[in-house]
Amino acid sequence: MISFALDEEQTILQTTVRKFAAEHVRPNLRAWERARAVPDEARRRFHDLGLALLDVPEAAGGAGAGLIASTVVHEELGFGDAGAAVALWAPHLVPAALLSLGDAAQAAHHLARFVEDPLALGAVAWSEPAGAPLEGFATVAEKRGGGWALSGKKAFVVNGDRASVIVVFAQVEPGRGWEGAGAFVVDGKAPGVTAGARHETLGLETVAASSLALDGVFVREEDRLAAPFVDGARRFFARASLMTAARQVGLARAAYEYALGYTQERRAFGKPVAHFQSIAFTLAETLMDVESARWLLWRAAAVPDGKLDLSHVAQAAVHANEAAFRAADNAVQLLGGAGYVQDYPVEKWLRDTKTLALSAPTDQLSQLAVTGLALGQPIDAGLPSSALQPIYT
Ligand SMILES: Cc1cc2nc3c(=O)[nH]c(=O)nc-3n(C[C@H](O)[C@H](O)[C@H](O)COP(=O)(O)OP(=O)(O)OC[C@H]3O[C@@H](n4cnc5c(N)ncnc54)[C@H](O)[C@@H]3O)c2cc1C
């Protein structure tokens, strides 16, 4: 049976987060942007509502809600403020990585601090400033008495300059591509870890990101995450993509509703501008974008855990990015002069949606995945394999 409705529990959750976003997030959109941070009080509230570790299994201290519930939460937060949505959840990229790439004991051990401390900060480092080799990472992990030594450079790492725990993706077996990569849990204060200055960004100012240098950083054997890397990274990036898509749906809905309200109030040539046909068409197209993006997202998320369809995930991710960009762009256009000044939120949404769309994987890689999967090509770790490159490049 096909259902386009949330169940009772999901509806209660949606109402709770909608209230949280309306009362605590949207009113602070500019203040938090200027402060370049979400205050600790909001992070505590987010944690106390059980939202921080929503999709972490109950056995590991989370709420054990499914993926649909998480997309509902992130849509509502994205509606409130996409910057806050990323900042509030960013530490929980670590639990997502632990659950995707670690075994049960590793996840339980490292998750404990996120369950207990609402202000615990984590980071996951995959991107590299040098650009990726054909497959795999330039950052290397070498065997060193009882563990591993990690060396290399990472970029754009959210919370990289402040995380107490960082999951680092590195190459264990050079020449074996993604199959030869691994994930390691690194203490953010370990000798050899140096964070660069915080990046100045286009949007999402509440999110602190920086480069990271690793110089022979020692990691214990038991802190190498145990799952085969390709399967684990595929799960990790797929889940991260769905959460980004959910924020984009929320942002798109925010832009649509704002433009709808504004164009009914604003009058030109004797009537509300919403009553001009071209503006009505734009509003209708924006609404269709919002709705279709949500349906693709829910289709991708409505699967038993671990059984995500990569093509569905990639389609949802790309469409949400494009829909949100069009919605924010349309909102700026429909507000006219009010669209570009900071007295109104729409210029921020345009900057935020573009920034969100650049989190991993990019639209190009997702689109390669969609067509590659349709052609039966190998798609490793959610990224195209070298076998796919000659077809498209
Ligand atoms: C808000 C935000 C949060 C982020 N958080 C993190 C984080 O916490 N940790 C982290 O490690 N990184 C993070 N990133 C970085 C992000 O994951 C990367 O920027 C993204 O994956 C792109 O990688 P890149 O910058 O190396 O682009 P490149 O790989 O250099 O790509 C450059 C361009 O080429 C395109 N391209 C690359 N390969 C192909 C191909 N095979 N075919 C066609 N086109 C291709 C890309 O789509 C892109 O348009 C974040 C980025 C943003 C914007």
Chain-wise SSE layout:
Layout lengths: L7 H18 L3 H7 L4 H9 L18 H23 L3 H9 L2 H13 L5 E4 L14 E5 L2 E12 L6 E7 L9 E7 L5 E6 L10 E12 L8 H37 L1 E2 L2 E2 L4 H25 L8 H26 L10 H12 L5 H12 L4 E2 L2 E2 L4 H4 L1
Parallel strand pairs: 1-4
Antiparallel strand pairs: 2-3, 3-7, 4-5, 6-7, 8-9, 10-11
Helix pairs in contact: 1-4, 4-7, 5-6, 5-7, 7-8, 7-9, 7-10, 8-9, 9-10, 9-11
Bound molecules: flavin-adenine dinucleotide.
Describe this structure in words.
With 393 residues, this protein is an alpha+beta fold. It has 3 domains: 8-116, Acyl-CoA dehydrogenase/oxidase, N-terminal domain (Butyryl-Coa Dehydrogenase, subunit A, domain 1, Orthogonal Bundle); 122-227, Butyryl-CoA Dehydrogenase, subunit A, domain 2 (Beta Barrel); 230-392, Butyryl-CoA Dehydrogenase, subunit A, domain 3 (Up-down Bundle), CATH 1.20.140. The protein has helices at 8-25, 29-35, 40-48, 67-89, 93-101, 104-116, 229-265, 277-301, 310-335, 346-357, 363-374, 389-392, and strands at 122-125, 140-144, 147-158, 165-171, 181-187, 193-198, 209-220, 267-268, 271-272, 379-380, 383-384. The chain has a 4-stranded antiparallel sheet with strand order 2-3-7-6, with no helix packed on it. Residues 387-393 have low confidence and may be disordered. Bound molecules: flavin-adenine dinucleotide. Flavin-adenine dinucleotide (FAD) binds at residues 124-127, 131-132, 154, 156-158, 204, 209, 355, 358-362, 364-365, 368, 384.
